[in-house]
Amino acid sequence: MKSSTLLTLGLLAASSMIASTPANAAVVVGGPNGWEFSTDGIVDLFSYYTSTGKGPGAGHSLSLLSIGGNESESDQRFGTGIGLLPSVVAFNVKAPTTNGVDSSVRVGIYPALQNSANGNRFNTNPNIDFREFFYTAKGSAGELLVGRALNLYQGKNILNDMTLLSAGVVPGAAFQGNTTLGHIGYGYLYTNFGPQFRYTTPDMGGTKVAVSIGEPYKVSGDTTKRSSPRLETEVSYANKFGDTAVQVWLSGLYQSGERSNGDKIKSTGAAYGASATMKNGLGLMGSGYYGKGLGMVSVQDGDFLGSTSIDGAGKERTHWGFLAQATYALTPAVTVGVNYGQSRQNESDYDKIAVDLASTGPTDTINGISQIKTQGAATVSVTYAFNNFTKFTAEYTNAKNTWMDGATQKSNQFALGSTFFW
Fold first, then answer.
1. In the prediction, which pLDDT does 283 show?
2. 3-state secondary structure of 127
3. What is the value of pTM for the model shown?
4. How far, in Å, are 8, 90, 96, 235, 421 from residue 30 at the CA level?
């Protein structure tokens, strides 16, 4: 039977199996010639209420907490939508093992479930994101990944955040129709999914080294030349000591470019973390990052909130942040968790001048604007596992933004939702 025919039959069979046996963690359909098809996915939906104080207004950079809303007024808002991780339907195709190499393809489709950002209930077209579309070839010499996948730099920082499968920080109205933030911009930066060639070494006593060559991003809003690739690497270690599972990681980033005025610009960064999960149900995790020209929300999307990757003189700002977390399984079904994170950018010499100018009320988007210095958030959660594939989560998040001139904005946020896995 040809693989294309098998795949078609597999899709039909998998659909019926999911409907009749939702308890399966993954649905696998195989054929006599060694090809296999499987599917997995997530459906998640959260209702949330946010009470956000007014921002400092003119002379200050935009705030994630109120962007797209009324920046100079307080805001109370109820919403229903996906959490940090969108719902996903993923399909996997595995080829027959050939010459000791296992090859497979993964396609991940990530739709939003809420209506559009403008609140029009008739606009039900969700944001559908093909975040994953790659193939891997794995053998004794290691693994090759080719395609679109989660980037290495700060990848494990976000994957080990407990709010990955919940809401975390809920941003302003401009993000309705998209995901919440978790701790993006509040403890780590969004690494993004990007096209790349990646090589990962074989497991060496728990240690793996990965290197990727990826699509170069814009370091700042006026980056016009990107003649060198985005280079990332990660060294990770995972092992078990008695009843305690431990993992440690370190990742790095380098990319250079050229601005419209001819000035050279670059992004450099390191990210790190460690976690331990114990038999008694206690889990501890700490992660952080440090670098230059990174931005305050998404790595190398530094122009997102008014050119945060560089200052008004074109110099790369220094960015750093951290996330500390503790979880505890009270029972096999109930887990409580708490974490706190910050993302920060150091005040440059130019920023100090801009803070003084801000009091005169200039409207230029860089000159005379006081930039955000710190974005911090604490989250407390309770999760109830109804069964192996359905869970319910209740969360409270307190977020605070602080500008370089001392102005602040606070938000109290509540979320309640459910997640279904297969």
1. 97
2. coil
3. 0.88
4. 12, 17, 10, 35, 22
Output the DSSP codes for 56-73: --TTB---TTTTTS-TTS
Nearest to 142 by CA among 106, 95, 100, 194: 100
Q: Which residues of 41-54 are buried (b: 16+ CB within 10 A; e: fewer)?
A: bbbbbbebebebbb
Asked if the 40-421 domain carries CATH number 2.40.160.10, the reply is: yes
Cα radius of gyration (the chain): 23
Which ranges of 182-264 would DSSP assign to H, the alpha helix?
Answer: none
Distance CA 151, CA 23 (A): 31
Q: Say how many CA atoms lie within 13 Å of 324 toward its Cβ.
A: 2
Q: Cα separation of 147 and 143, whole Å?
A: 13
Residue 262 burial by Cβ neighbours in a 10 Å radius (0-12, 13-18, 19+): exposed
Q: For residue 288, give the nearest of 217, 200, 183, 171 by alpha carbon.
A: 183
Cα–Cα distance between 332 and 281 in angstroms, integer?
9
pLDDT one-digit tens code per residue, 196-229:
999 999 999 999 999 999 988 888 777 777 778 9
Letter string b/e over residues 301-319, b meaning 16 or more CB atoms within 10 A of that residue's CB: bbbbbbbbbbbbebbbbeb
CA distance 4 to 381: 45
Separation CA 280–CA 332 (nearest Å): 11
| Lowest-confidence pick of 110-114, 168-172, 311-315 | 311-315
Amino acid (one-letter) located at 115: N
| Upper half-sphere CA count for residue 254 (Cβ side, 13 Å) | 5
The rounded distance, in Å, linking the Cα atoms of 328 and 98 is 44
